[in-house]
């Protein structure tokens, strides 16, 4: 499930991952909730991701609350060109702790890094916040595709590991994976 303020790029990130395209131009805000499926091959196993795109607007909050409970993973986004969206991350985390399962896989993403001139949230600020909460963190761009596949693949690997419960397999470590694979990605252990 993708969550975060309105306009941070949740729908665009999802469309980039699903279809490899970027929705440039008019911003059409999500109404309520929407979903898309994608089947991934994760180390030889087919993983079907059902990805829920939530509306960031406050007026739809009660709708999205109902979906947290069933989410296995959450991508929490802010927009690096919008300070308020970053400042609101703590409020989103409070909401997540209230409504989501306590062991939900959670990742923090700072989106729109292609807009270098408009950036107001430094990468280090994202890293610091992620470290504070023990979250894996990456900067992404739905426009260029930077780290988009990586974010979803890392989550898919984590979910596959959790559902297979194969003790013989080496434990998948999401933090280490994104640190190794990410372009400009970083991770922060608690
Ligand atoms: N430059 C740039 N623009 C982006 C990026 N991702 C999204 N946008 C733009 O940001 C605006 C909002 O994108 P959406 O994906 O609709 O935002 P959202 O988070 O789904 O918004 P809500 O549905 O209201 O919650 C659109 O005009 C997009 O074109 C990105 O990575 N880079």
Automatic annotation (TrEMBL):
Example of a GO MF term = G protein activity
Q: How does it sit in the membrane?
A: Lipid-anchor
Pfam families in the cross-refs: Ras
User: What's the Enzyme Commission number for this chain?
Assistant: 3.6.5.2
Which PROSITE patterns is this protein grouped with?
RAB, RAS, RHO
Matching Gene3D superfamilies, A to Z? P-loop containing nucleotide triphosphate hydrolases
- Keywords on this record? GTP-binding, Hydrolase, Lipoprotein, Magnesium, Metal-binding, Nucleotide-binding, Prenylation, Protein transport, Transport
Q: Where in the cell is it found?
A: Membrane
GO CC terms in record: secretory granule membrane
Q: Does the keyword Hydrolase apply?
A: yes
Q: Which residues form the signal peptide?
A: none
Q: Which CDD domains match?
A: Rab26
Q: Which reaction does it catalyse?
A: GTP + H2O = GDP + phosphate + H(+)
Q: Which residues form a coiled coil?
A: none
Which GO BP terms apply? Answer: protein transport
Cofactor field? Mg(2+)
By its UniProt entry, which PANTHER family does this protein fall under? LD44762P (PTHR47980)
Q: What's the family? A: Belongs to the small GTPase superfamily. Rab family.
Task: Name the chain's protein.
Answer: small monomeric GTPase
